[in-house]
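Hey,
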Amino acid sequence: MKSVVFEKTHKLSIQDIPIPKLDAGDVLIQMDLCGVCASDIAALRGDVSDYNPPVVMGHEIAGVVVESRHKDVNVGEKVTVNPMLSCGVCIHCQNDQDKYCNSIEGVGHDIDGGYAEYLRMPKHGIDTGKLIQVPNDIPPEELLFLEPLGCCLNAMDETIFRQTVAILGAGPIGLMFTQLAKRKGLATYVIEPLSHRRDAADTVGADTTYDPTHERIEHLIDMTDGGVDTVISATTNNAAVISLAYQVVRKGGCINFFGLAPEGETLNINLEEFHYMGHKLMASWAFSRANLEESRQLLLQKVINFKPLLTDRFSISQGLEAFGNAVGQRGIKTVLHP
């Protein structure tokens, strides 16, 4: 089968590899779509270290079970996966914080993922609730967003909100945050340099979108009487983005540095200034099992508009072009299909 393999930093390749063979309790998923995630791009650049190459990347999955050796899983079920395969018994797993489990394996990080024609889901993952079934009327174009939407829901649970929020970046994550913020009743402002992404933010309900020019940022600060209550950075947290977050948040406000950061990027904090400004600084990542169930329910209720998000499709054999498209931000969400 065709696959996209992360061989090492700066090296991605298209390979023909064997279709996975199943052991007792495993299932085989035929892929429909798999989203290209910013974390995969960061891993290829060498900015993150939670990948174990060589590995078939891909964890934003939509597929169908075509072979099952598990008593609780039927052929034909439409599924996605919770890509964090954990022990299920440690204190972190008991507290629904699987991401902190010391024995975690990530689908598309440590074991082969969804940038292939087929994916093997191991018995242990199924036994610990990591195979997620949805009704057949959920299209793959929405199902692939279940996992990233779960990440956004986790951040929404953790972040301090009052009345106003600025979302930095109108990629797929920023557009989901925009819709979740509006559902929460917040005045929602999106800051994005690319016009086609600002247009998408308008489509999904942003109150106002801003090009990050000096004049436009000053307008936002003036309009909100000194800055917004909350900033969610849904883009790469480089020095310019960090500076922008501090610029638009009010005194006593909260900043969630949700996005990844370039290798070696740091926050330099003057503690006396930090003390008197009263900023609440945080970072959210991944999700709980409860977050993914909430995400599943939102898909069933059809309350999130995913249509403007998915813009570019590539076959697995075009995997290198797909990554180039995502890196270049030529659309919004790039996906792979068999």
